[in-house]
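DUF2490 domain-containing protein, pasting as requested.
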Amino acid sequence: MKNAVHAAALGALACLCLAPAAPALAGAAEYVFPATVEEGEKEIEFKTGTRKLRDGSRESATILGFGLGVNRWWFTELSAKWHKEPGERHDFDAWEWENRFQLTETGRYPVDVGFLLEIERPRDRSEGYEVKWGPLLQADLGTSVTANLNLLIEKHYRADNAERAELGYQWQLRYRWRPEFEFGAHGFGEFGPWDHWLSTSDQSHRWGPAVFGRFKVGRAQTLKWNAGVLFGLTDGSPRNQLRLQAEYEF
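Structure tokens follow.
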């Protein structure tokens, strides 16, 4: 297993260091990817978000998907995405195929390690295929706090206009007070091209508080949710953002 952990870490590092080149600001319905997988779990997932841009306009996004824990190390989900640009209608935007791979046994090491591979096919074929990948890290801090840190590369392939790969991140702290209600903080950001970051003022960084919860709604059904407020920290960020994620697991 140690060899597998080392190989996973080297693979993640290679992705960060060798990725080719593409910019993109994550959507308003963005969410933090967990590093662990639950075998056999099926879920219907709803995600939505809206944010106010620096010019005062607003954009929104909605995602609806179905996911499955295929085995103890692979989770896959197919989603439909809708997006509303400022001044436009809320229209269908893309199909998205998310795959998360758990690379270490849960709790065996100080940090649980996973890997994300996500492929998106936009409705606008000129955008080609959007691919996102990178390591997912998750750890318990003490007995009550769970921490996540994800480093992700995003790039468009077969697009009409060639673009460079962009480096982004996600982080989250969650205090496990009680299953029905937990609280913490989270953040998202993009640095720009992976090998030539934008100036700090042009980068996008969005941080803020978050709340979480889960409820049993049947013998084998659970409703999980989390929501948060994000505030832009730089001129290249939206002014503020609201986001919500809800999962019906069965």
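Note for the archive: The chain has one domain: 2-249.
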